[in-house]
Design a protein that fits this description.
Oligomer: single chain
CATH architecture of the largest domain: Alpha-Beta Complex
Largest sheet: 5 strands, antiparallel
Number of strands: 9
CATH superfamily of the largest domain: Aminoglycoside phosphotransferase (APH), C-terminal lobe
Number of domains: 2
Shape: globular
Radius of gyration: 21 Å
Number of helices: 11
Helix content: 40-55%
Strand order of the largest sheet: 1-2-3-5-4
């Protein structure tokens, strides 16, 4: 996109009067946004390039201010040009959690991340004018798996029995999400969007799609990450530890003390998220020419299969994902486009 890059340089030169600076790619994400690191007078900034015909940057600005005012470590919006789709942001560095997580660091890093999550959930529902994570959105997200992975990528033809079974399972997962206490949901709270920082860890990125939704959504995004996996018993210990923190913080009420209920919320919420993620990974390959995410589908759907085995009403659905979807992926080669 050489034209966009020239527009960006013109903005830095003419509107921000940067004069001398260095500009280099910082990262790209699963949307149409790109990021550049700009160094000017010894200070490092990040420029978000979000084409206005593809991305609306206003939610990013609004939620950045909301989280910043709560004391969370998010990029501060220093300057903006919404007409062209450029934001000048403070730089949270280039060390994502994913690169830093290991047996020696995970307890400390997840402890920081869970503390920040409690701040988000405890402080924002009453003040944030965020859209609701409603049934329509929950179901439309899960439909991405059927459209882009099962149909487009694998070419599987479903019979009436399979279609009915899948519809029932997705309805159950949506019901589970809507039955939970509703809080502010970051919606992409995982190891690629959390940055390791020297102070006020973690740095938090990619929050522009925040909604008011289920209390376990961000928790399962972090603990059953699509990009790194931990033993189930350990994940459940972390989840129940967060339940205690949420009860102490007033995020959850006394009638939410049942650990089995909380783990059911957590498990089924993860199935909803992982079905959505698997569909998005396939869409990134076919629509956006980004095949690298395909390698994350087996891990992501592996969570679905593992959880479904533990709930009678989802056993058939899990078996379908295991034998038909993962089986087809394994036999056809996941990297095929």
């Amino acid at each position: 996109m050489p034209e966009r890059l020239e527009q960006l340089k013109t903005w830095l030169d003419d509107e921000l009067n940067f004069g001398e600076y260095t500009l280099r790619p910082a990262s790209a994400d699963a949307s149409f946004r790109r990021y550049f690191r700009v160094t000017h007078t010894g200070v490092s900034y990040v420029v978000m390039d979000a084409p206005p015909d593809r991305e609306d940057s206003r939610p990013f600005i609004e939620i950045s201010k909301l989280f910043f005012d709560l004391g969370l470590n998010v990029p501060e919006v220093i300057d903006e040009n919404l007409e062209q789709g450029f934001l000048l942001l403070s730089d949270l560095g280039s060390a994502p959690y994913l690169d830093a997580l290991n047996e020696e660091t995970v307890e400390r890093l997840y402890g920081d991340a869970l503390g920040a999550l409690a701040t988000i959930q405890a402080c924002t529902p009453g003040t944030a004018s965020l859209p609701a994570y409603d049934r329509t959105l929950l179901l439309s997200e899960m439909a991405l798996c059927r459209e882009w992975l099962i149909d487009k990528h694998l070419g599987l033809a479903l019979d009436n029995v399979q279609t009915g079974m899948i519809d029932a399972a997705l309805g159950l997962l949506a019901d589970n999400a809507l039955a939970q206490p509703q809080v502010c949901v970051h919606r992409d709270y995982h190891s690629r969007n959390l940055m390791l920082t020297g102070r006020n860890n973690p740095g938090i990125l990619d929050f522009q799609d925040a909604v008011i939704g289920p209390v376990t959504y961000d928790l399962v995004s972090l603990l059953r990450d699509c990009y790194i996996a931990w033993p189930r018993a350990r994940v459940e210990d972390w989840a129940l530890g967060y339940q205690e923190l949420a009860l102490q913080s007033g995020i959850l009420r006394e009638d939410h003390e049942d650990p089995q209920q909380f783990l059911r919320w957590f498990d089924l919420m993860g199935m909803q998220r992982h079905l959505k993620a698997a569909g998005i990974f396939a869409r990134l390959n076919h629509r956006d020419g980004k095949p690298g995410y395909l390698q994350d589908i087996p891990r992501t759907l592996g969570y679905v299969v593992d959880v479904a085995k533990r709930y009678d009403e989802l056993v058939a659905f899990g078996a379908f994902i295991d034998t038909e979807v993962l089986g087809c992926l394994n036999s056809s080669g996941i990297g095929e486009t």
